[in-house]
Each structure stands twice: as C-alpha cells, then as structure tokens.
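Example record for the data management plan.
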Amino acid sequence: MAASGITLSPRRGRRWDFVALGEVMLRLDPGEHRTVSARNFQCWEGGGEYNVARNLARCFGHDTTIVTALADNPVGRLVEDLIRQGGVDRSHLRWVSYDGVGRETRNGLYFAERGFGARGGVACMDRGHTAVSQLQPGMVDWERLFGEQGTRWFHTGGVFCALSGSTPRVALEAMQAARRHGASVSYDLNYRESLWRNAGGLERAIEVNRMMVPHADVLLGGTTALGFAPETLDAAGEGARRAIGRCASEFPHLKLIATTLRRQASTSFTDWGALAWANGAFHAAPLRENLPVLDRIGAGDAFAAGLIHSLLAGKDVAHGVACGAALGALAMATPGDAANATPAEIEAVMQQRAEALAR
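Corresponding structural encoding:
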C-alpha cells in the first residue's frame, strides 16, 4: 500500500482486524442538566482506546477485541454488557475479584456534562485504583494474542499510559509484541490534564509518550503531548503542519502522523477538520466551519476509526482523512462516546463535503 506508507498484514490467517488496549469506563450523562443537580443519568460505556474498537466494529463491521480489566461486580458486568452491545469481543477481558467496597480494585466512572452555548462541557472522573490500572507486565499473554491468533492492527495510547506507573510498561510490552508479529501499531497521544495532574503533568506525559513513539508505526492526536506544540490553528492547519513536520523529523520511522483540527466558537459549534502526513506529503480534510455539536466526546476516536478503517480496506491516506473527519462529525451529532453511524451515512457526509468543496 504505497499510497499510505504502510504495508498492512493480510487478514488471511489472522483472527482480528484490530486489537485495542485500554480502560472501559461507565459514563453517566445528565443530559441537559448539570451533574450537581441531576436526578437521572443515561449510562454509556466509553474509553479512548475502546471507542476506536467500537466504532470499527459497529460502523464498519471489523472484527475487534479489547484487552482490559474490570472488577467483578454488577457495575463491571454492566460495562461488559455494554461492550457486548457495542460489537467488541470480550474474550481478552480480565476479571478481578471485588472486595465488597472497592478498597483494592474498582471500576472506572465518569460523569460528563455536554454543555450548551456559553456553558462548557464538564467531566468529573472517578477512576482511581481501577482494575485495568493495576495491570502489570506479564499478566497478558501477548504471544497467544498476536502470535497464535494474530491481528492486522494494534492500538493503545496516552490515556491508558496515564492510569498508573505500571501501565506504560504494559503498553510497551504489547507494542513490541504486536510489531514482532507483523501488526501495524498506532499510538494516540491523547493528553488528559486531569489524569496527569498528580503524576508529573504535561512534562511527565511527554516523557512517557517519547518512550512509546519509537515502537509505533502510526501516531495520532495533538503533538503538544510529544513536545511539538502548533503555534496557531488556522484554516489551512499551517501551525499543525509545522509541528507534525518537526515530529516526523525527530521520529523518521513513523509512517503516518494524523490529527484533528478544531477551533471552538462555543460549546454548541466548532470548526472541524483533520490533517495527516505520510511519505512526506500532507493530506487534509479542510475545516467545516460552525459545525453544530450535540456531544463532542469521542470525536477524535471516531476520526481515528475512520482513518484506520480506510487503511484496513486498502484505501489511501486521503480517503482515510476524509472518512475519519466525516465519522468524527457524525460522532459530535450523536450522544455518547460512539458514532453509531452506518457506512451509508458516512459516505453521504463525505460526498456532501466533497461537493461543497468543489463549488
């Protein structure tokens, strides 16, 4: 696949199209209300790495699985059922004994206000001492997963690596094993200030990410979390292009670097686009201006899923950026972390955008 700069392993003989490593939480959504005054919550499952697997399975029909861990209690079983409904395989889900109150291990929760107009979105995380944060190197049989079963693509990222002192070592172990067995490896920088606040902040996140990137083929997300901050965000993405260019120069082994472009006028409207670099060339999905937003959580993960789907399907990077940008736009028009879009809906949004740009 010269156009993409990535030679993907064929599906033949491999059980999985895509494997993700990350936490799956229970998201509690107060809808139009504030968390502090809400009396009812809609529940969803969500998590940065998992969302990509779910979108690939539900929107495009890929065979995906998630490597994660849950405390064995009713909340964990609810999250498992939501994963099942999302179409993601659960055979690599590790169950951890629950002590009755969560002193030793528990399941992650987060309360997410979507915001509206002048009122910004607010997230309240409750994910300390979770089962997946306690994973240690050697706990997962990566040789069985990548060697015996096989996958075309493996994905993890900065959210998982922020969970504890051991999770970066687990991610590194997994990335090395995946590459050994011929899988393409993507890493999403995905910096979350709340996760790093008491663990060294952005400086520590950059340090951890720089340990991971040499073992990835594809880099996703804003390069600020790698120490390359774009000076500006303009309609052409020139600031992001310069930051990506510096990243590509320092890490010449990377085959693809991709990020979303966003300018937020208010909580309810955003300018939305995407940019990717491969084989020394840039491919862009120009900014959609004043795109209405219902729920912005998960838009970046939807972009990643659309991009990865295109590459798995033999399309080039330009198609992948357009597909990812379309799926991200649909994700922001849908409540919950996932896009829940059909291929026909994604294609229609891509076609509408192409026609608008041709005018």
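Summary line stored alongside the record: DSSP finds eleven helices and 13 strands in the chain.
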